Structure to design on (70 residues):
């Protein structure tokens, strides 16, 4: 996934199964520290959007996935 930083866009890998609300750290992609020469980290929070309206085909596939996962 592409993430915007102060230096531009960077590619970030989000592992399968990542839950909504999980926070990842991009080291040295944040704001420079005014008290030293270091650069801060950028924190990226993952928000998983769950669809509320499904087509009949999507619903059937979700139910099949649920059945197989048990």
């Amino acid at each position: 996934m592409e993430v915007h930083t102060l230096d531009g866009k960077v590619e970030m890998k989000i592992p399968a199964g990542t839950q909504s609300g999980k926070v990842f750290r991009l080291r040295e992609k944040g704001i420079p520290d005014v008290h030293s020469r270091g650069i801060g980290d950028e924190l990226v929070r993952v928000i998983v959007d769950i669809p509320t309206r499904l087509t009949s085909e999507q619903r059937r596939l979700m139910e099949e996935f649920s059945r197989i996962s048990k």
